[in-house]
Amino acid sequence: MNGFVNWYTASVKRSPRLTNGIMTGSLFGIGDVIAQVGFPEKKGQKYDLARTVRAVVYGSLIFSIIGDSWYKFLNQKVIVKPGKHWTNTAARVGCDQLLFAPVGIPMYYGVMSILEGKSLVDAKKKIEDNWWPTLVTNWYVWPAFQLINFSLVPVHHRLFSVNIISIFWNAFLSFKNSISPSDKKVPVNFPPVPE
Fold first, then answer.
1. 45, 47, 51, 57 alpha-carbon torsion, rounded to 10°
2. What's the distance, CA 97 to chain centroid?
3. Are the C-beta atoms of 84 and 137 separated by less than 8 Å?
4. Do the domain assignments include residue 159?
5. Three-state DSSP class for 48?
6. pLDDT at 66
7. In terms of CB atoms within 10 Å, which of 1, 24, 89, 178 comes out highest?
8. Is there a domain that residue 89 lies in?
9. Is residue 189 part of a domain?
10. Is 29 inside a domain boundary?
């Protein structure tokens, strides 16, 4: 593990966009595979490679760039009281959850809808159906983790640490994104989430 961390650290310092793009895209893809294999929407559903490719594209080309920039912004600009570590960390978590998450969630659903070849009207409907339940679920998952992430993890590793936890979050997002508006019931084999 130490060898991987050393390689990743050197790689992210040498070529941050490429490293973060590859890592984030890969982990978005893994999350989608988990969603498809572990929590299929319909019994006997076949694996959809194109769906995984869309997740990789979103993670690599969109989220990795925005996420990395966001974490750097938070670290450099969200300083409530210089020298007050926990106050600044709490402010960063607050910004992340009250500014980034409410925008990032509809961005995910909108972009994925477009990548699926759906219309803007369909994308809007997907966002309307999923934004609030996903945001509430986000608040159950992310604030505690981000408190640890922003307080203990160096800024150049924050996206990576988020990506590791995001494997399961991405599986959840992928599952939610795959449900059509007419599918209101969550399969019994999927962990319960607040809606």
1. 160
2. 12
3. no
4. yes
5. coil
6. 95
7. 24
8. yes
9. no
10. yes
Show the tokens assigned to 94: 């607050």
Q: Which pLDDT belongs to residue 12?
A: 81
Single-letter code of the amino acid located at 174 = S
DSSP code string of 51-90: HHHHHHHIIIIIIHHHHHHHHHHHHHH--SSTT-HHHHHH
The structural domain count of the chain equals 1
pLDDT in tens, 121-175: 999 999 999 999 999 999 999 999 999 988 998 888 888 888 888 889 988 988 8
Q: In terms of residue numbers, what domain contains 154? A: 15-178
pLDDT digits (tens, 9 = 90+) for 37-92: 988 877 888 999 999 999 999 999 999 999 989 988 998 999 888 888 889 899 99
CA 34 vs CA 9, 27, 106, 109, 190: distances in Å: 27, 10, 22, 18, 12
Mean pLDDT confidence for 112-118: 95
Biggest distance spanned by C-alpha atoms of the chain: 56
Amino acid present at 29 = G
